[in-house]
Specification:
Elements lengths: L23 H15 L4 H20 L13 E2 L2 E2 L11 H20 L6 H14 L16 H16 L22 E2 L17 E2 L36 E5 L3 E5 L19 H13 L9 E3 L17 H7 L26 E3 H11 L8 H14 L17 H30 L4 H11 L22 E3 L17 E6 L15 E5 L22 H17 L9 E5 L15 E5 L2 H14 L5 H27 L8 H5 L1 E3 L6 E5 L6 E7 L4 E7 L3 E5 L6 E8 L5 E9 L1
Parallel strand pairs: 3-4
Antiparallel strand pairs: 1-2, 5-6, 7-8, 9-10, 10-11, 12-13, 14-15, 15-18, 16-17, 16-19, 19-20
Helix pairs in contact: 1-2, 1-3, 1-4, 1-9, 2-3, 2-9, 2-10, 3-4, 3-5, 6-11, 8-13, 9-10, 9-12, 10-12, 10-14, 12-13, 12-14, 13-14
Length: 726
C-alpha cells in the first residue's frame, strides 16, 4: 500500500543496513516522531514539542557533564525559573542520565499527546518503550532530594509542562487564535463559485465537504481556521529582542526578522506580466503545466547539474527573481557541483522525465498522510545521517569523537531550537502579512479576466496576464466554450487538471490540459488542497534552510556522507493521489542546502507557494539555523553563564494562568509602572512595581486573557506580556 510519509525511514541508499546500538535519546525521539505522525498536523505545535523534548533530553545529559551547562534545569529560561538544588553524583552517570531522561520524556509526551486523535496508539508506544527500558511508571514523585533519578526526571518534566503553560502558546486552551479574524470569506471548493469579491492580497480560508489534514486526520471543521497566526509571541530559543518588531494589523503581531511585505497586486495598465504579483502567481500556473506524465521532456537532476547556490546570490529585485527562476522550463539557475568531494570524481548524469521529477518533488517534500510535518522531517533526516558509518561523530567536525548519546542530545538541541524558532519567526510573519495562496490568487485573477491588452475582450487591471500556450482566452468552438459559448472570453490555463479527473489514484492520472482558470488546482489531494494558513513566508523554506545549516555545522561538512544522498523511487509506486512515477528514478543531493533548496522548489511545483514566499524564508532560515547552533555551542562549552538581557527577561509573572493572585518577581528592583488591560483594550488595573517581589490581588477580575503593559520612568512602554486568569 502506497503512503506519502516522505519515506525517510529509508531515506538514503547510502545508509548502512547494520543495526547499530541507538541511544536512549534516539529511541525517545523516534517515539515522539511517531506521536507527531498520529496527531493533528500542526507544524508550529510540533516544532515546539520537538524543542521542549530536546531540552529535557539535553539537560538530563548535561547535569553530569563537567563542562556543559543546562538550558532549563537550575536556570531562568525566558523568564521562567526552574530551581535545582543538585543531586549526588552517580556511580554510573550513563544509567542516571537514561533514567532521568526516560521519566522526563514519559511525562512530557503523555501530557502533550493525551488529547491527540491517535492517543491510544501513542500512549501504548510510550508505555512499551518505558517498560522495555525497565522503569516503573508508578514512580510519580517529583521530590528528588533523596537522590531519586526517577523523581528528578518527573520534576524536570513537570517544570517544562508548567513553562509550556506560560510560553504564550496557550496550550491549555488547545492553541487557540485569540485575535485573528480572516478578511476574506471561505472559498467553497466544490462549487467553483465566483471568487472575484475577495481582497487579493489577503489569505482566504478554504471550505471542504471533508478536510483531511496533513497527517491524514479528518478535521472536525469543514473550514479549517488559520493555524497559529499569533505564534510570534511564543517564547523562543535563539531569537533575540533586537530582531523583534511588534506590529499591528488589528492586533499586536510579534514579528522577528521582518522581511518587509510581499508583492501586492497592481492595477496593470496592460502588460500585466510586468506586475510582480501577477508574474509570481503566473509562474506557479506555468510550472503546473509540467505535471503531465505524457510530457517526455528530460532533465538532468544529478548534483552535477543542480544545486550549489550561494546565499549571497539569492534574488532581491524583481529582475533578479525573473533570472533566478526559470518561468517556462521550471527550476532555478543553480549550476551544480563540479566534483564529488568524497570520491574526487564528477557526478554522473541522472536524466529523468521532468514531469516525474516535478510530481515526485511535490509529494516527496509535502506533508501528506502519516507525516511528521517539516520540523519532524529534518529530525528524521538527522537520525538517518547519524546512522551512516561514514559520519565521524565530532561536534562541528572537531575535537574528540563523542558517544551516540552525546551526539544525539546536542544535535537535537541545536536542531530543535532552530525548528522551534523557525516556527515562531515564520508564523509571526504569516499572521501579520496574512498573504494569499495561489489557489485563491489565480482563481481571483482568472475570474477578473485578462490584464494584457485593453483592446481584447474581458480586460481588467487585476486580470491574468496572457501568455501564448499557457494563459489564453477561451474561443468559440472550443470544448471549454460551453454549449452556448457562455465561457468565451474567459481565461483558460494549460495546467494540471485537478482531483476531479482522478477516480482511482492507483491507476489514474489527471494529466495536463486547458482548464478554466477559475477551476485551477494546486497539485495536492482534493481533501487537502492547501495548508490552512497564509503563504508568506514559506515554512518549508525556513524550516529546511535552518535545518540544513544545523546539519552542516553539526557534522562539520556541508555534504552528505559520501558526497551524495539518494532516494530511490519505484515506477508507479510512490505518488499517492495519482499513479506514478512513470519510470524508476533516484533523487540525489550533494549537500544539505541542496536538499533544502529542492524542498523550496517543490512547493512551487505543488502549487502551494509563489517564489516571493520562498527566498526570504530561506534567508531567515539560514540566520536561525546558525544562531541556534551558535547558542547551543555556548551551552555545550559552558560559556553562556545564563546572562540576563534587558528588563523583560528580568521580570517574571507567575503563576500563568493565575486564579486570584498574580505574583511579579523583579529581582533588579526596576522602577516600573504596570497597567493591566482586558482583551477589549480596557484598563482594568494599574500599580507601581519596584520591589523585588509584588503580589497583586485580582479576584475581582473575570476569567480570560489580559495584557500586562510595563512602563519605565521615562513613560515609555518597555514590553507587554500576556497573562491568563482562570
Amino acid at each position: 500500500m502506497k503512503k506519502i510519509t516522505l519515506l525517510l525511514f529509508v531515506f538514503f541508499s547510502i545508509i548502512s543496513s547494520s543495526n547499530a546500538q541507538q541511544s536512549v535519546a534516539r529511541e525517545w525521539n523516534e517515539v515522539l516522531l511517531d506521536a507527531v505522525r498520529s496527531d493533528f498536523a500542526r507544524p508550529t505545535v510540533h516544532a515546539r514539542n520537538l524543542f521542549h523534548s530536546s531540552v529535557l533530553m539535553y539537560d538530563a545529559w548535561a547535569i553530569f557533564d563537567s563542562q556543559a551547562e543546562t538550558v532549563f534545569l537550575g536556570k531562568t529560561f525566558n523568564g521562567y525559573t526552574t530551581v535545582f538544588n543538585g543531586i549526588a553524583t552517580p556511580t554510573d552517570s550513563d544509567a542516571a542520565t537514561h533514567e532521568i531522561l526516560s521519566y522526563a520524556m514519559l511525562r512530557l509526551l503523555k501530557h502533550r499527546f493525551e488529547n491527540s486523535p491517535g492517543s491510544v496508539g501513542i500512549m501504548q508506544e510510550i508505555d512499551d518503550l518505558f517498560l522495555l527500558l525497565g522503569y516503573d511508571e508508578a514512580e510519580v514523585s517529583i521530590d528528588y532530594s533523596g537522590g531519586s533519578y526517577a523523581a528528578l526526571g518527573n520534576y524536570l518534566a513537570s517544570e517544562m509542562i508548567a513553562f509550556g503553560l506560560d510560553d504564550f502558546s496557550y496550550e491549555q486552551f488547545d492553541y487557540p487564535n485569540v485575535f485573528y479574524i480572516p478578511d476574506n470569506p471561505p472559498l467553497i471548493l466544490e462549487l467553483y463559485q465566483d471568487n472575484t469579491g475577495i481582497d487579493p492580497n489577503k489569505w482566504q480560508p478554504l471550505a471542504f465537504s471533508t478536510f483531511i489534514d496533513q497527517s491524514g486526520n479528518i478535521f472536525p471543521s469543514e473550514t479549517p481556521p488559520f493555524l497559529s497566526p499569533e505564534w510570534g509571541s511564543v517564547k523562543p530559543f535563539c531569537l533575540v529582542p533586537e530582531d523583534l518588531d511588534v506590529l499591528n494589523d488589528g492586533f499586536d503581531c510579534f514579528v522577528y526578522n521582518d522581511p518587509g511585505p510581499p508583492v501586492y497586486i497592481q492595477n496593470s495598465n496592460e502588460d500585466g506580466i510586468d506586475d510582480p504579483y501577477k508574474w509570481h502567481f503566473a509562474l506557479v500556473a506555468s510550472w503546473s503545466s509540467h505535471l503531465d506524465p505524457d510530457d517526455t521532456t528530460m532533465i538532468d537532476i544529478s548534483p552535477g547539474s543542480i544545486g550549489n547556490f550561494d546565499l549571497a546570490n539569492y534574488p532581491e529585485t524583481f529582475e533578479e527573481y525573473k533570472t533566478f527562476y526559470d518561468f517556462s522550463l521550471g527550476g532555478d539557475s543553480s549550476v551544480g557541483h563540479d566534483l564529488n568531494p568524497s570520491t574526487g570524481m564528477p557526478y554522473v548524469s541522472n536524466m529523468v522525465k521532468r514531469s516525474d521529477y516535478a510530481r515526485v518533488l511535490a509529494e516527496f517534500w509535502a506533508d501528506g498522510p502519516d507525516s511528521e510535518t517539516p520540523p519532524g522531517h529534518w529530525f528524521t533526516l538527522m537520525n538517518y545521517v547519524s546512522d551512516n558509518p561514514a559520519v565521524v561523530k565530532k561536534i562541528g567536525g572537531q575535537g574528540s569523537i563523542v558517544s551516540n548519546l552525546e551526539w544525539d542530545v546536542k544535535g537535537y538541541l541545536a536542531l530543535g531550537g532552530a525548528m522551534h524558532d523557525s516556527a515562531i519567526n515564520t508564523w509571526g510573519i504569516k499572521g501579520y502579512y496574512d498573504y494569499i495562496r495561489p489557489i485563491s490568487a489565480i482563481r481571483y485573477m482568472a475570474g477578473k479576466g485578462q490584464s494584457s491588452d485593453a483592446a481584447l475582450p474581458n480586460y481588467d487591471p487585476h486580470g491574468m496576464p496572457l501568455i501564448p500556450g499557457l494563459i489564453e482566452q477561451v474561443q468559440s468552438g472550443e470544448e471549454l466554450a460551453g454549449a452556448g459559448d457562455e465561457n468565451v472570453g474567459k481565461i483558460k490555463i494549460f495546467a494540471w487538471r485537478g482531483p476531479d479527473f482522478i477516480n482511482d489514484p492507483e491507476t489514474d492520472v489527471a494529466g495536463v490540459d486547458w482548464i478554466l482558470g477559475e477551476h485551477w488546482w494546486p497539485y495536492q489531494r482534493g481533501t487537502f488542497v492547501t495548508p490552512p494558513f497564509a503563504g508568506y513566508l514559506s515554512g518549508h523554506s525556513t524550516f529546511s534552510r535552518a535545518a540544513a545549516e544545523v546539519l552542516t555545522r553539526l557534522t562539520g561538512d556541508p555534504f552528505f556522507p559520501g558526497g551524495m544522498g539518494t532516494f530511490d523511487l519505484v515506477q508507479d509506486d510512490f505518488l499517492v493521489f495519482e499513479v506514478g512515477p512513470t519510470e524508476n528514478m533516484t533523487l540525489q543531493w550533494a549537500t544539505y542546502r541542496d536538499a533544502s533548496d529542492q524542498t523550496s522548489l517543490s512547493r512551487i511545483w505543488g502549487g502551494i507557494h509563489p517564489p516571493i514566499d520562498d527566498i526570504r524564508g530561506r534567508i531567515i532560515g539560514d540566520k536561525i539555523g546558525n544562531d541556534s547552533f551558535d547558542l547551543a555551542l555556548e551551552y555545550f562549552q559552558g560559556t553562556l553563564s545564563n546572562p540576563t538581557v534587558g528588563i523583560e527577561n528580568s521580570i517574571n509573572l507567575y503563576p500563568i494562568p493565575f486564579s486570584n493572585e498574580l505574583n511579579i518577581s523583579n529581582p533588579k528592583n526596576e522602577r516600573l509602572h504596570l497597567e493591566l488591560y482586558s482583551l477589549e483594550g480596557k484598563l482594568v488595573y494599574e500599580v507601581d512595581v519596584f520591589q523585588n517581589s509584588t503580589q497583586l490581588q485580582l479576584s475581582s477580575l473575570g476569567t480570560g486573557l489580559y495584557f500586562a503593559k510595563f512602563i519605565d520612568v521615562n513613560n515609555e512602554t518597555v514590553f507587554v506580556k500576556k497573562v491568563v486568569k482562570n
